[in-house]
Specification:
With 309 residues, the protein is of the alpha+beta class. It has seven helices and 16 strands. Helix 1 packs antiparallel against helix 6 and helix 6 crosses helix 7. The longest helix has 25 residues. The structure holds adenosine-5'-diphosphate and magnesium ion. The site of adenosine-5'-diphosphate (ADP) has 19 residues, from helix 7.
């Protein structure tokens, strides 16, 4: 997944750890688009040619990705692959592509041109050159599966951390009031400075931000969340969005969706969905805490000012 994966358990248990890492590896092998062979790659390689039948787990993740892409009126688009591959942000060769190429690739990113057949569990990309990219939700999905594996082994306390997609199980102590502490990075800090600490129990904490994968060209910052309307990185007031939710898939979906919506639109949505909480870090050094009932936030960097709804 191009990131560090870590598992924290209260009691050391190699069998459980191995089972979790094996399941993560298995899913990465199915979902990656950064290698030539995977289930998602077999769909992409058959674009414009024929449907491809995939395993039920991959199919159900693709179904959810399509639902979010089509019915959410957001910038989330799992057909964004051709543009991700063009920009190569976070990979060798990253650079601003010629505008003409961006325009051409935009024509290959319509999620309506992806046909799902539930009976055959098959996926068909109707145009040659189309590519599915599940980068915005794969880690969340995989973290939820890892939690199920832990439950299978009767492990109900711990932390699964997939490069910033943090899923906490239970609380660290038997004491009801003990919380896991999840650091929220200070955007663009050269060391590992934190802007704050999020304290949660039994919750997922997922951040989408512009400060992990980006490059600078001609004094302009280009980051890895692309606007499917323009083909360029989304441009708004946010450095990052962190979503606190029950499932990590949900957190991964909404952290990307909220990033695209920006603070005001996301706040309206969150007011109607109290089960979700979010922390917005604005470029102007404001931190907005929305629905703060599901977590405790401790400010570390006093440059930031907190606003709460
Ligand atoms: P992170 O990878 O930091 O966890 P996200 O969950 O926000 O961040 O996902 C960003 C990834 O999603 C990109 O690296 C790319 O693979 C893919 N992506 C980029 N733009 C979009 C978009 N508009 N909709 C869906 N996926 C996207
Ligand atoms: Mg995401």
């Amino acid at each position: 997944m191009g990131t560090t994966v870590s598992l924290t358990l209260i009691e050391p248990n190699d069998t459980v750890a191995q089972a979790v890492f094996d399941s993560i590896k298995l899913l990465e092998d199915k979902l990656t688009v950064n290698r030539l062979i995977s289930e998602v790659m077999s769909i992409n390689l058959a674009a414009g040619s024929h449907p491809v039948t995939v395993s039920s787990s991959v199919f159900s993740l693709i179904e959810q990705a399509q639902k979010v892409s089509l019915h959410f009126n957001s910038c989330f688009n799992f057909a964004i692959g051709p543009l991700v591959k063009l920009w190569k942000i976070g990979f060798n060769g990253q650079q601003v592509p010629p505008a003409k190429l961006i325009k051409q690739r935009l024509l290959l990113t319509d999620p309506n041109n992806i046909e799902l057949d539930t009976n055959n569990r098959s996926v068909f990309l109707k145009k040659f050159g189309m590519e599915i990219d599940l980068g915005a939700i794969a880690k969340g999905y995989i973290a939820d599966v890892a939690k199920l594996i832990l439950h299978k082994y009767q492990v109900y306390q711990g932390i699964i951390n997939l490069g910033g997609n943090v899923l906490t199980l239970g609380s660290p102590l038997t004491n009801e009031n003990s919380y896991w502490h999840v650091g929220l990075k200070k955007p663009f800090a050269t060391d590992d400075k934190l802007s704050g600490v999020i304290k949660v129990k039994n919750k997922s904490v997922v951040t989408s931000g512009i400060y992990e994968r980006f490059f600078i060209q001609n004094n302009h910052l280009y980051h890895h969340i692309l606007d499917p309307k323009t083909g360029y990185p989304l441009d708004n007031e946010l450095d990052s969005v962190t979503v606190i939710s029950n499932s990590s898939l949900e957190g991964d979906i909404y952290s990307t969706v909220f990033y695209g919506w920006g603070l005001d639109n996301s706040r309206k949505y969150l007011q109607k969905h109290q089960n979700l909480s979010a922390i917005f870090l604005l470029k102007n050094k404001t931190i907005a805490l929305i629905n703060p009932d599901n977590f405790v936030f401790q400010l570390i960097d006093t440059q930031y000012k907190i606003i709460t709804d």
